[in-house]
Amino acid sequence: KCPFNLPSAMLSSLSFVLLAYNEEKIIAEVVSKADAEARKVSGRYEIIVVCYEGATDNTINIVKQLAAKNKRIRIVYQPANQRGYGVALRMGLEAAKFDYVFYTDADGQFDVSELPVLLPFLNEFDIVSGFRRHRKDPFGRILSSRVYNLLMRLLFGLKMLDIDSAFKIYKRRIFDSFKIKSVGGLVDAEILIKAKNSGFRIKEFPVHHYERFAGKSNYGTGFISPSVVIKVFREMRFLWKELKK
Known about the structure:
The chain is an alpha/beta fold. Helix content is 35%, strand content 18%.
């Protein structure tokens, strides 16, 4: 259970970042829920939707229509020639201008109404990450994730249950201490490792995870592809060298 009462966890200001890629069937619902939840926890907030310009559906146009009706919604365009999850997340974090930054994917696999359960921990911690207690992904992805988490623990001392959970809130000031360089799947680990090494405190708390009913994951439906694994290992090597300097 949370050690504090939720009323004490109201935020001074919040940047709510959504990463969207071919999510036309659900993006309007997710943005609407994000707006409702952000309004509950802060009087000053913004909704940032990072849209990939290389998308093949109508996601961008839908977000444009939503932004035209709600001035709190901002679109960040990820160039088609700059692919990568790390690029999208970095652009969203760089665009965020408020004291606290929350991010999640716009695919509906997380319930944004659970954001308030993370907030009380911000009294003691600088990053709060919701780990997927019952992860609703194919077996191959779950197994790959467990191996990855173990590898991060052995190589970098990052002792976390669910490093890549896309349900995290950060104190904005932590990003003044280091630069994010990953362009691919290592980005969450890079942020957490650098934050830990900089003396910031990290907390995990269980949240629900749901099956994807629309859209398609960039990582496929089974084991992570060899090309993605190679890219992650390449970024790990660069991160290792950077941290050793």
